[in-house]
Amino acid sequence: MVVFDMAGTTVNENNVVYKTLRKAINEAGFNFTLDEVLAQGAGKEKLQAIKSVLNVYANNTDDALANSIYQNFIVQLADAYAKIEIFEQANASQLFAALKKRGILVVLNTGYNRQTALSLISKLGWQTGVDFDGLVTATDVSKNRPNPDMIWHAMQQFNITDAKTVAKVGDSIIDIEEGKNAGCGLNIGITSGAHTSQQLQTANPYKVIDNLIELLAVLDNQ
C-alpha cells in the first residue's frame, strides 16, 4: 500500500489552503508570511497548524484565539474552493493506474477535515475504488500528524498488519515524520508542494523525488 498526502502531493490547488490560513491568521492582528505559515503549518491538521504558527512566531498559546481563527479559516476556505479550479499533480492518475496494475493499494490521507477532502476529490472527478482505494482524513482519527494514527487507520481498513509493506509519500516534513512514526518501509518526500528538497531532507526520508511518476522506479529498486 502507498499512502499519499493530498494538497501539494497528489492535488494541485496552488497553495490556496495555506494562503487562506495565512489570511485568517493575519486578520486576527498578525503579519506572517506565507513561507512562515508553510514552515510551521504544512501537513498538519489545520487547527494545530494555526496553534503552531502562533506559538512559534508570536509566543501565543491562546486556544480561544486559535479556535476563532480556525472558524474564520473554514468559512473562507469553503468560499475559496467554490471559486478556484483544482488540478491533480502531474502524473497522479498515471501513477495510480500503474500501482493498481501492480496490485498496490492507493490511499489518500490529509490534514483536512473529511468534508474539505471530499470536495477536492469531487472537483478532480476521482472515485473511490476506481482512481484510488481509500481516504483517511484528520477528522477520522483522534491524533493527527506526526502521530501515525491516519496510516494505521488505513492499514486496518485493508487488513494490513506489517507497516514495512507500506510507503508514505508527502510534500512536507511532517508527512515524513508521520510515515516514520507509523513504521512505514519507505518514506518519500516530494518537492511539488510545501517544502523544498533541503527542508525535506532534514526529516531523513528514504528519498526525495520531484515528480510522482518517479515513485515507480523507487519501488522497482526494492
Automatic annotation (TrEMBL):
- Which GO CC terms are listed, alphabetically? cytosol
Question: Any idea which GO molecular function terms this record carries?
Answer: phosphoglycolate phosphatase activity
One GO biological process from the UniProt record? DNA repair
Gene3D superfamilies in alphabetical order:
HAD superfamily/HAD-like (3.40.50.1000), Putative phosphatase, domain 2 (1.10.150.240)
* Keywords, comma-separated and alphabetical: Hydrolase
One Pfam assignment: HAD_2
What name does UniProt use for this protein?
Answer: Phosphonatase-like hydrolase
Give the originating organism: Mucilaginibacter gracilis
Taxonomic lineage is:
Bacteria, Pseudomonadati, Bacteroidota, Sphingobacteriia, Sphingobacteriales
